[in-house]
Design goal:
Blueprint (H helix, E strand, L loop, with lengths): L6 H13 L3 H11 L1 H24 L2 E9 L2 E2 L1 H6 L2 H7 L6 E9 L6 H12 L5 E4 L1 H10 L5 H4 L2 H7 L3 E5 L6 E7 L4 H6 E2 L5 E4 L6 H11 L2
Parallel strand pairs: 1-3, 1-4
Antiparallel strand pairs: 2-7, 4-8, 5-6, 6-8
């Protein structure tokens, strides 16, 4: 009911009013009675559509999650490891996404950055990390990384074993193939600015190491 009228009756009444008005009167009548309502309705519709799109995008499948510690990666490098990587896999951005953190802060003078990175690594937030020596030492102390001798398949080991970097882990002191030196690779030369050695590390859940290895295959294809 609208002012005691049914919706149909209200529409008929408005049509009758408009039929008795000239063009200028119709324009003035619309501005006075309907313009604000239409603007509010359009804003509400836009917000609803934005919310719906964001909600749908949040449910996209995460192909892989990676990040960079200590080194600077340019915009082309970010694209290479995100959009270009999805294109390489033949995946649609409508249903899939790559999570990539281009600048992970690790500052020993700022305990909050250390605690944040510890929490992220401990909760398996990354499938792989690209890092300087400082980040490599940090992760080996946590012991949250793959032993590349045991993890990489035969083809990758044959191609990359001469790049393996061995480190003693945290409290255990056990030595493992902790990282791959990518300092002199085409990828590092084109996309990274560090001024020191750069390493690739497999992190995260053991059952998800394949995600990081797929990125390795992509980088060294």
């Amino acid at each position: 009911m609208i002012h005691g009228l049914t919706f149909k009756e209200y529409i008929e009444e408005e049509k009758q009013k408009l039929s008795e008005m000239d063009k200028a009167e119709k324009k003035s009548y619309f501005k006075e009675y309907y313009l604000k309502t239409c603007i509010v309705a359009l804003i509400c519709l836009a917000l609803f559509m934005w919310f719906l799109v964001e909600m749908l995008l949040s449910f996209r499948h995460v192909i892989v999650t990676g990040g960079v510690i200590g080194a600077q990666i340019n915009l082309e490098g970010e694209k290479y490891l995100s959009d270009d990587y999805m294109e390489y896999l033949g995946k649609s951005g409508l249903f899939n996404k790559v999570n990539f953190a281009p600048y992970i802060i690790l500052d020993e003078n700022d305990p909050s950055t250390v605690m944040a990175l510890e929490a992220e690594i401990a909760t398996n937030s990354y499938n792989y990390l690209i890092t300087t020596e400082k980040g490599l030492q940090f992760i080996t102390q946590m012991e949250c990384l793959a032993d590349l001798d045991e993890t990489l398949d035969s083809k990758l080991k044959e191609k990359l074993s001469d790049r393996f970097v061995y480190r003693k882990l945290g409290d255990s002191g056990e030595e493992k193939a902790a990282a791959i030196d990518i300092t002199d690779t085409a990828f590092a030369k084109e996309y990274l600015l560090a001024g020191e050695n750069i390493y690739f590390i497999l992190t995260g859940k053991t059952e998800e190491y394949e995600k990081g290895m797929d990125v390795l295959r992509y980088m060294f294809r």
